[in-house]
Amino acid sequence: MSEKPHPVICLVEDDPIMGESLCDRFQLEGLAFDWHQTAAGAMAAIGNHHYAAVISDIRLPDLEGGEMYLQLRAAHRALPPFIFITGYGAIDRAVELLKAGAADYVTKPFDLEQLIEKVKALIGAFAPAAPGTQLGVSQAMRRIGDMLPRLAVHANTILISGESGVGKEHVAQALDRLARKSEQCPFVPVNCGAVTESLFEAELFGYEKGAFTGAVRTKKGFFEQAHCGTLFLDEISELPPSMQVKLLRAIQERRIVRVGGETPIPLDIRLYCATNRDLKEMVELGQFREDLFYRINVIQLRIPPLRERKEDVLWFARIFLDEFAAKQGGGRRALTQRAEQALLEYPWPGNIRELRHAIERACIISADTTLGPEAFFGDGLTHWTPPAADGNLGAYLQECERNYIGQALILNGGHIAHTAESLGISRKSLWEKMRKLGLQAGGERSQ
Fold first, then answer.
1. pTM for this predicted structure
2. What are the chain's domains?
3. CA-to-CA distance for 327 and 324, rounded, in angstroms?
4. DSSP H or E stretch at residue 190
5. Digit-coded pLDDT (tens) for 334-389
6. Are 49 and 34 in contact, with CB atoms under 8 Å apart?
């Protein structure tokens, strides 16, 4: 079968009547698709194609659909989102698969309109314009992700703010991938805090041969290296005052002069800056030039810390587990329910960077196929236990319930009926708990 343009849906359905009906509807909706009637055919295709979503029946002739998904999870670092089709008697299995990372499920007989809505939502959320641009599943990060394509086209200067480790460079790279006109366009990251002050000008703007002792050849600076691409200035708050005015001039004129040179060199670059400090406060204290601040602050993206978007914790944890499984070989480690709860409770002062290191450390040190909380928070590692809400057991249990229900809402895509079913409670009880706990349908806390 020849390649189809993205996004493409992978349909796994052995029933010819249902399969043809779904394919007819996909065609009417203008959705590209591949249809496989066996798990074996689907697994081979999923391994060789970039699908935007997979819709699979759980009951297949050669391999149970859930087992197919779990085998794919163990074999591949990343998978497209899965929607499972199941009969009423197999709902428990579908819920298990949601907990294992599947996106959603529908029960037979299902509403075709609802299925199409779910598929379109998944294509929009999980199949961005370039690989690696999904930033998280929390409402805050989805909102930022939705903005990136527009910013990549229209904004040449962007300030990305947030605590250390929240993923500012990852956001800059996602913007770069969306904005670049070809694969040859460079992305040049510069940590301003790691450059010696005396070398700043030469490193940023380059120098001519003989410009100073040791300049035995002409060298391009970071600005020239980023020509026709992106220059990413991380920790711009650490830029010394002597360089701030020179940077301002280079941004305004979009040209530089090498140290020891006289000829202006025009540049075509996108400038993305990042800071973990409050630049506005630094301006008020006289530590950062006000005119430079306004010049780089045309568009500002604030990346919230991980403790403000708990929904992303387990999402990132599963990505890192896949990553280290691929690196180490063997199957992907699983998290126990207690480990998941501990990861959600921990405040992650180092944010995503700290979470990634914790997952890597646990995968290296633990020989178990499942990882409990002791793999992350004991035996000489980060010593921490979830706080017992100032000693109040009721408050602690309420916080645990809030996190557990919030995760269930996320796993079920905010679908109240499915979430209630997975929790074993009625929809009315779920609504009452959500209102009591201050939860919204997306799993996030009410403001």
1. 0.60
2. 8-126 (3.40.50.2300), 139-302 (3.40.50.300), 306-377 (1.10.8.60), 389-437 (1.10.10)
3. 5
4. strand 187-191
5. 888 788 888 888 888 889 999 999 999 888 888 888 888 888 876 444 445 554 44
6. yes
